[in-house]
Amino acid sequence: MCLAVPTLVTSIDGSMARIEVGGVEREISIVLTPEAKVGDYVLIHTGYAIGVLAPEEAEESLRLLRELEEAAELEEARAQAELRHDEVDERGLETT
Amino acid sequence: MKYLDEFRDPKLAQGLVKYIRQRAVVPSTVMEFCGGHTHAILRHGIRQLLSGSVTLLSGPGCPVCVTAAADLDRAIALARVPGLILATFGDMLRVPGSYGSLREAKAEGADVRMVYSTQDALALARDNPNHPVVFLGVGFETTAPTVAASLLQAEREGIPNYYVQSLHKLTPPAMRAILDGGEVALSGIIGPGHVTTIIGSRSWEFLPQEYGIACSVAGFEPLDILRAVALLVDMITEECPSVANAYPRSVTQEGNRAAQEIMDRVFEVGPAEWRGLGILPDSGLGLRAEFQHRDVLCAFPVDVGPSREPPGCRCGDVLRGVLSPTECPLFGGACTPAAPKGPCMVSAEGACAAYFRYGDYSDGK
């Protein structure tokens, strides 16, 4: 029962809220996330919001992943360059 | 779709896979606790992408799968009580009990209704005031607060015919049981992201502190899972286990306090029987004394015959990570999603269902 979907809160009426995801609107309970506001994204699990998503954390995560991807690309290029250097060395030794 | 598409970026996924393969100097074995993770891992081919660097084992995090046969038998017996309406999440319908499934009981005349939410069950209770309506409460800490909330709502609105059969279970005790069992050697654990949204990442501190095992709490998109594995590999390589939050857009140290309070108001912790793990102390949620009038087994005590596992079913071993689904002799032959022998093949979070659906036969035949 770990399945939960991020949805946009479009309106709130007491402990119920209207949310929208993929163009579909539904009514769900925000009794577990009383701090939710219109415009927030909340995770919906079996008809209840279980958490409010933090946009700045999402941005930060993506930024870190982009950095990590660049680092991995650089490391791969470096490793390949080393391999080619070793190959050249070997060929050099063979011809002399 | 926002908060989903960005975390499925294939270029960033490739970067993460490269990073993991570069950093995983020594191959390691990691368990993903949650069945939802098993499904995502298989659906996105993550097992194969990481094979050789990180071996991923699936754990017991499928609440339908760990529901004991005796508990399911009691639910089926309740459904057979004349006039009683049993409301359940869809997954539970097809799980074989000792003497048949809820779906079979329904076919024989039991009033079993599939619901998506306890809100639906409450509506059934309102619409059928002369019938007891029972919600079959299966789920971990992600679901338990929603059931607790529904119970409090029934109290507030004066809906006397709403009952719960609480089979809710807690995840940290199951993790301890796996590790104490000593059957699998793990370097790290991928923690359940939505359970942890509720209970807070500090709930997993016991893993590095008492077991020396790294834990990385993960969301459910491919980048979330890969990032969690990357963090695990870093901790394993540096021999510095701790709890890493790889899902910070949803998970915090303290978790969801409102949900925790609601759970605490309605439930108390006690022993629970887990398929595959036996009876674990302090691992289940039962209704507190002041809510006993909502406990269906107090109102409708049912007798069930001796419970038994389906013959040849190895779900228990799969749930403990000691058997891969494809190693089960029944897998794909006698046991398929169309004709399941055990819960692991039925549930949306079952490991066997995931292996069958996404065609990963790399372990066994």
What does this structure look like?
By secondary structure, chain A is of the alpha+beta class. Chain A has 2 domains: 5-53, SH3 type barrels, CATH 2.30.30.140; 57-96. Chain A contains 1 helix and 5 strands. In chain A, strands 3-2-1-4-5 form a 5-stranded antiparallel sheet, with no helix packed on it. In chain A, strand 1 (5-13) and strand 2 form a beta hairpin. By secondary structure, chain B is an alpha/beta fold. In chain B, the strands form 3 sheets. A 5-stranded parallel sheet of chain B has the order 2-1-7-8-9. In chain B, strands 4-3-5-6 form a 4-stranded parallel sheet, with helices on both faces. In chain B, strands 10-11 form a two-stranded antiparallel sheet. Chain B is globular. At the A-B interface, strand 4, strand 5 and helix 1 of A face helix 1, helix 2, helix 6, helix 7 and helix 9 of B.
Determine the mean pLDDT of chain A: 91
Number of DSSP helices of chain A?
1
Identify low-pLDDT runs of chain A: none
The tally of strands of chain A reads 5
Strand content of chain B: 15-25%
For the sheet with most strands of chain B, the description reads:
5 strands, parallel
- Inertia-based shape of chain B: globular
Q: What is the annotated CATH architecture of the largest domain in chain A?
A: Roll
Task: Spell out the key features of this protein.
heterodimer; A: 96 residues; alpha+beta; SH3 type barrels; five-stranded antiparallel sheet; 5 strands; B: 365 residues; alpha/beta; Rossmann fold; five-stranded parallel sheet; four-stranded parallel sheet; 15 helices; 11 strands
Brief description of this entry?
With 96 residues, chain A is an alpha+beta fold. Chain A has one helix spanning 55-95; strands at residues 5-13, 16-21, 24-29, 41-45, 48-52.
Record the SSE blueprint.
The complex is a heterodimer of chains A (96) and B (365).
Chain A: E1 5-13, E2 16-21, E3 24-29, E4 41-45, E5 48-52, H1 55-95
Antiparallel strand pairs in A: 1-2, 1-4, 2-3, 4-5
Chain B: H1 10-23, E1 28-34, H2 35-43, H3 46-50, E2 54-61, H4 69-79, E3 85-88, H5 102-107, E4 111-114, H6 118-127, E5 133-137, H7 144-157, E6 162-166, H8 171-181, E7 188-192, H9 193-199, H10 206-211, E8 214-218, H11 222-237, E9 243-245, H12 257-266, E10 267-274, E11 278-287, H13 296-299, H14 315-319, H15 351-358
Parallel strand pairs in B: 1-2, 1-7, 3-4, 3-5, 5-6, 7-8, 8-9
Antiparallel strand pairs in B: 10-11
Helix pairs in contact in B: 1-11, 2-15, 7-12
